[in-house]
């Protein structure tokens, strides 16, 4: 059960440090969902680039930092200036179910073709490869085949077609590097995903809704809304391009799809770290279909 977290920064916030503090806090909290490896990706601005694309600096730029162990081991205060200037940041903590945790190429965030992406779950990767003609992977995880497919998607119909083909537990966050201020989020079967908006209009996501309540207590941020996504939800978050205007991040596109899980995928560890109330609410809204299918581990063993 990996941990996903990240943010899309609002250009209206008078202090970028507030959102950055939340991002780092979410990373520390996400350690409860995996300490095999951890990583972060800063998109849209890093040394040599200025601020927001179209607002004083050129678009582009991507820095990925990852390593073995918990998030607290790979995080460095030296990253703060870059984080404060990045419109988008993705984070991941890993509990390995497929692919050795000792292999750096298996750690996330992963840069695959033109996408930078993170995945929480465990899927039937062999079944996905059998259905689609995919190039060889650089690593041995079940995440990389999904990222390869998403990299070739031209729009929401293509995305939902890929997501409906996935069998297993899956929650995803990804960014196309040529569009670094647009984030794609998807929750398929089981793997939880929560979206929050603070009073500065920054948008965040995380695997556990409790983390936002904890972050509110330990940072200077107040959240205006915290919503657990239902299974079968895809959303694109970003800003409309309007000449002469600075727009806040918002949900630009939503779509629904029917997720599929294996009969072995229902495991209480899906809700690792959840309060009893949050788990009950989420389980009451499950709507995936279940099939008897070999493939993956069912999340019942960690690859050593």
TrEMBL record:
Pfam families reported for this sequence: GATase_6
EC numbers, comma separated: 2.6.1.16
Alphabetized UniProt keyword annotations: Aminotransferase, Glutamine amidotransferase, Transferase
InterPro entries membership: GATase_2_dom, Ntn_hydrolases_N
Location of the Glutamine amidotransferase type-2 domain: 2-240
Reactions catalysed, as given in the entry: D-fructose 6-phosphate + L-glutamine = D-glucosamine 6-phosphate + L-glutamate
Protein known as: Glutamine--fructose-6-phosphate aminotransferase [isomerizing]
């Amino acid at each position: 059960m990996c941990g996903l977290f990240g943010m899309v920064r609002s250009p209206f916030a008078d202090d970028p440090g507030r959102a950055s503090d939340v991002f780092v806090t979410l990373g520390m909290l996400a350690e409860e969902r995996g300490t095999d490896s951890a990583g972060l990706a800063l998109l849209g601005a890093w040394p040599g680039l200025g601020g927001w694309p179209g607002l004083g600096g050129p678009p582009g730029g991507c820095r990925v930092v990852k390593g073995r162990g918990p998030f607290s081991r790979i995080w460095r205060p030296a990253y703060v200036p870059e984080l404060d200037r990045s419109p988008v940041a993705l984070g991941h903590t890993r509990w390995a179910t497929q692919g050795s945790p000792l292999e750096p190429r298996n750690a996330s965030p992963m840069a695959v073709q033109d996408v930078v992406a993170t995945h929480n779950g465990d899927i039937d990767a062999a079944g996905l490869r059998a259905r689609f003609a995919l190039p060889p992977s650089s690593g041995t995880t079940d995440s990389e085949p999904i990222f390869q497919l998403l990299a070739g998607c031209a729009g929401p119909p293509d995305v939902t077609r890929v997501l409906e083909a996935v069998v297993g537990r899956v929650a995803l966050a990804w960014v196309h590097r040529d569009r670094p201020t647009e984030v794609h989020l998807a929750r398929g079967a089981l793997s939880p995903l929560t979206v929050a908006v603070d009073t500065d209009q920054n948008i965040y996501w995380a695997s556990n809704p409790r983390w936002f309540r904890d972050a509110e207590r330990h940072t200077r941020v107040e959240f205006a809304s915290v919503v657990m996504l239902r299974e079968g939800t895809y959303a694109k978050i970003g800003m409309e391009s309007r000449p002469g205007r600075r727009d806040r991040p918002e949900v630009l596109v939503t779509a629904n799809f029917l997720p599929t899980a294996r009969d072995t995928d229902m495991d209480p560890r899906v809700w690792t770290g959840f309060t009893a109330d949050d788990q009950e609410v989420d389980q009451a809204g499950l709507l995936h279909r279940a099939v008897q299918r070999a493939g993956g581990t069912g999340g019942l063993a960690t690859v050593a």
